[in-house]
Amino acid sequence: MEKSNFSFYDKQVIIKSNGKICKNSEDLTKTELFKNVVHRFLDYLRERDSPLLEVFSQRMSKDEQEKTIINLLQKLSEPSKEEIIKTTPEFTDFFKDNYLLLQFVENLYNYWRNFERFFVRYPIDNEETNLYKKPYRMFNRTIGSLNHLVRKVYRDICEGITNDHPRIYRQIPAGCQVGLIVNKENWLCPPAPYDKLKDIHFIKQVLIEPPLIIDPLMNKRTGQFRKVDVNPLDDVQFNCEDWLCYPAKVGDLIIHLFFHNKFIGLGTALANLFDLADDNDLKRKPDAVYAYGVPEESLKKFGNLPTVFFDDEKNNILVAAVPGSDDFGYFGYIKKMMLTLHNIIMMKRSRLPVHGAMVKISLKNGKSANVVILGDTGTGKSESLEAFRALGEKYIRDMTIIFDDMGSLELSKDGIIKAYGTETGAFVRLDDLQPGFAFGNIDRSIIMSPQKINARALLPVTTLKEVLQGYPVDFLLYANNYEEVDNDHPFFDEFHSMDDALEVFREGARMAKGTTTEKGIVHSYFANIFGPIQYKDLHEKLAKKYFKALFESGVKVAQLRTRLGIPGFETKGPKSAAEALFEVISKCQNLTSSL
Fold first, then answer.
1. Is residue 425 classed exposed, middle or buried when 0-12, 13-18 and 19+ CB atoms within 10 A define those classes?
2. Partners of 207 in the beta sheet?
3. Is 83's pLDDT higher than 50?
């Protein structure tokens, strides 16, 4: 790349460029990145005492091996091996075993592709800073050209060795999987300590080649997010070149996620969960800022679990920070902290946050209902939505997801309770989805740690218009994933008093499903440790107010027994619960959504 540099973080490589990409094979094989990848690959082979090292003469030193193979690959990307042998006879021994040399090249190519690869396009000096306003096709062509060139170099080298060409072509994104256009923003930044963030580049456009498979450092989240009395940014120093900002639309809020490049895979995955703020959004002061990946020592004063936030009432902004150690390299630390900040702001605006899912269902018999399913992680919220999809052909005429993890309730002046969402995507467990659904949406998905417990898919499920619409609530259901179903404990178990309902919702019982480090039956206040528990007095006042209004307005409040936490019922439990809910909806009269 012209005027480019690169960084490696564990299994990730970031290519930063403020100029044009390589134009031909010669340019690419002479880059420092190409040489660095070969160097790393050789170290990788030596660690394993790989038979592929037999491609070299035993007389060669490590430095000679590296220089020679780079020189050979550069030559193989253009002429044939016969011409190479003729002009540089010292390479003759490499072609005594063509298959071994070919396997060396194949494994080098696979070694490169096993990295999670990101291309970040910075503005050029003296260039119009509004690069991102140019047609998106220009950037898309750049990424396409880079991927084509890497494939071409690989194929040309292989053809140079075999004197043959492939009959089967796989058009994989061999250069990079994610492309970003970034730019400096003159955003409404509060005074110190926030001015440290002022020079961090903002993401203006994201290009993803799905399915994107990444393997973060961790696959579970632990503990809670703590409210602290001092600003966590006070002691943090930022090297702005190592950071990026994803300005996210979280419901009707704007939250700036500043993340260290070490977590670029998790930071850019946010594009499948929250819409990217546009120029008009960036003219307003953000409702919250979140620094993800700060130096550990800057948060040591907050103890062993420094996942903290601060309510900066003076500047009317919430601020959060999480350390950059490997222990916090899980997407849940991004998503749930941002939703915690959202929930706190909603409570301050007299809305009741809901940890759950909402769907608008229209049945084939003409009945329709807006259903909110409240529950903690692993209780069957997303799984119930998946069951609705699976049963769609039999029962459903239309289904619209309003939110899939977090929303809020608003009580209007006329006594109608409306629900609003936050995310346009869903972060769902692969184990609890119908295989057909997961594969049917793989062309839009970001898949995390597919080989591990708690494997996840991050995929778009709704639109910002639906999230912000405000739908009246017909059903508020508590997702009970741990109780078996019998005559006394039906799938749909309606509450007939506000106090009984509040008792169950406050207790927040569930069977832990391995999505966090918890095990067995656990409890969390209103199944929501993301804001309500930190502002319990405020939340309790709102809960009593809203539950009183729910019962007075005729909203059906009940438990829905999904049995998701009972072994053997991971799929059929939510399916049976969904069928029972459809039956209840079919018998209901005068639902708000039907009026």
1. buried
2. 179
3. yes
Question: How far is it, in rounded angstroms, from Cα 474 to Cα 480?
Answer: 19
Residue 188, number of CB atoms within 10 A of its CB: 11
Ordered by start, the domain boundaries in the chain are 4-178, 190-202+209-348, 353-424+461-594
**Backbone phi, psi, residue 172, to 5°:** -80, 155
Q: Residue 193 burial (CB < 10 Å; 0-12/13-18/19+)? A: middle
Which tokens go with 224? 């809670």
| Separation between Cα atoms, residue 468 and residue 593, nearest integer Å | 16
CATH 3.90.228.20 fits 353-424+461-594, yes or no: yes
- Report helix angle 98-113 to 136-162, nearest 10: 160
Residue 15: closest CA among 129, 190, 174, 238:
174
DSSP-derived secondary structure letter, 486:
B
| pLDDT higher than threshold 90 for residue 98 | yes
Nearest partner of 398 among 364, 426, 431, judged by Cα: 364
Helix orientation angle between 98-113 and 32-47, rounded to the nearest 10 degrees: 110
* Both structure tokens of 394: 């039999």
- The domain defined by 190-202+209-348 folds into Phosphoenolpyruvate Carboxykinase; domain 1 (3.40.449)
**pLDDT of 497:** 96
Q: Please give the angle made by the CA atoms of 284, 289 and 294, to the nearest 5 degrees.
A: 150
DSSP state of 380: S
Q: What does the H/E/C string look like for 206-233?
A: EEECCCEEECCCCCCECCCCEEECCCCC
* Angle, in degrees to the nearest 10, between helices 572-587 and 381-390: 70
What pairing do the DSSP bridges indicate for beta strands 446-448 and 212-214?
A: parallel
Start-to-end C-alpha separation, the chain: 61
Q: Quickly list H helices, 518-566.
A: 536-553
CA 78/CA 38 separation, integer angstroms: 18
CB atoms within 10 A of CB 287: 19
CA triple 481-482-486, angle to 5 deg: 100
Contact 586, 363 (CB under 8 A): yes
What would the two tokens of residue 403 be? 């939110």
456-460, strands of its sheet edge to edge: 212-214, 446-448, 456-460, 425-429
Angle between helices 498-507 and 536-553 (to 10 degrees): 140
**Nearest of 45, 57, 21, 164 to residue 108 by alpha carbon:** 45
pLDDT value of residue 453 = 85
Cα 11-335-400 angle, rounded to 5 deg: 115
**Contact assessment for residue 505 and residue 543, using Cβ atoms and an 8 Å cutoff:** yes
Tokens of 201: 């580049």
How many alpha carbons fall within 13 Å on the CB side of residue 477? Answer: 31
Tell me the C-alpha distance between 363 and 257, whole Å: 40
pLDDT 10s digits, 46-72: 999 999 999 999 889 999 999 999 999
What are 366-404's pLDDT values in tens digits? Answer: 899 999 999 887 666 667 777 787 777 788 899 999 998
Structure tokens at 372: 């909110």
